[in-house]
Amino acid sequence: MSDEADRKxxxxxxxxxxxxFGDLVKKYQKPIFNLALQMTGRYDEACDITQNxxxxxxxxxxxxxxxxxxxxxxxxxxxxxxxxxxxKSCRLEPLDRHLADRTxxxxxxxxxxxxxxxxxRAIARMKIEARVLIVLRYFADLSYREIGYIxxxxxxxxxxxxxSARQQLQSLCTAMGIASYE
Amino acid sequence: xxxxxIEILMFKTLSGDISLDEQHVLDDLMKNNPELxxxxxxxxxxxCLLSESSSVDPPPEIEMNIMSAISKIGHKKRxxxxxxxxRIRDIFRQRIFKYTYAFGFGxxxxxxxxxxxxxxxxxxxxxxxxxxxxxILDSNNLENFKTIIEKSINYDSMSxxxxxxxxxxxxxxxxxLSASQQISCNVLYPSDQMVISAISSTMGLTNFLISxxxxxxxxxxxxxxxxxxxxxxxxKSIDLKIDTGFENNTLTLNLLVGKAxx
Lengths: 182, 262
What we know:
A: mainly alpha; Rna Polymerase Sigma Factor, Chain: A; Arc Repressor Mutant, subunit A; 2 domains; B: alpha+beta; 6-stranded mixed β-sheet; two-stranded antiparallel sheet; 18% strand
């Protein structure tokens, strides 16, 4: 679905068509849920954050300006919601990797699981800003420009901070033994 | 070339942003540096793991919950445009956030004081953001709660209603803020099954800064989060809607109603 299609759905939602907003929910709930899940490490919290984000987006739909993609707009909302939760709760747990569907041989799966668990734990230990960058870049596949918009920093800063974030993640992963896996 | 420059080149090659010339430089550097090769390999492994990370499907009830919530919010109540009032409110909210933490302590004290004895908050009304902290301790104290509110609050420009719903969308309670400067609280849910007590106040306070689509978070005894959605109209009225549920007939609620002068 294109940005133009999003715009039409937003217009329809503004005009009172709930089904149009439902289509936006269908389209974007997964990336937003995954952002929250990756950031918080908690399934239930991710559900709540996703719901709150969409409800908030609906309530503020009239303030949305189509200069940026709807996805970036709602993603920023989701990110704020998530960061607020993290700041309030200070509880972080690694993700339950069994939630993810992976297809591999049992041995490969086991090794990959272990590596992913280490990676998740490492991500959970990162500072919030660095974690956000990693999640946005690698889990949401956003461009530097979009990350810049969401985090309200210039594109160049995104690159340099992402560089530092990767360094941080690499150090954590190495310290936690990820390099020992072949 | 210093270590930093080498690291940047490595980062660039991993992210695919590297130019041909830079790649040649990196290749040359790696020829005589096995440590660098290992380092790059390690970084590649992490890059690969990151790119492999698969996404998880959200549970289907999310969509249903969202649609149910927006149908309750309705379109008429949604703000019509990003108006001057919204901007003023944004500025107002940003200012308030600066004082939130300091104010949190005040709210804690207010809750304690209101729990122990009713106090008159009128003296605070015109000096700083006014926060009301109401605590319903248990069904036997509901009457006290009502009394405390009526005695203590003088919201000269606020009116509105807080409705409490359970998971079955059953209306379980109403907190009304009327233009006649009275606040009343009716709990429709069978009161003998309802236990309400205060928890950490700062969370509620932090979230209860009046802005469109804001929220208050609170937890029940099972540490499950519930969210109170609320809206603030242009006429400064408050329309709070709480769509939540009860677990084992137990709900922990910390309700803070705040107002600051524009």
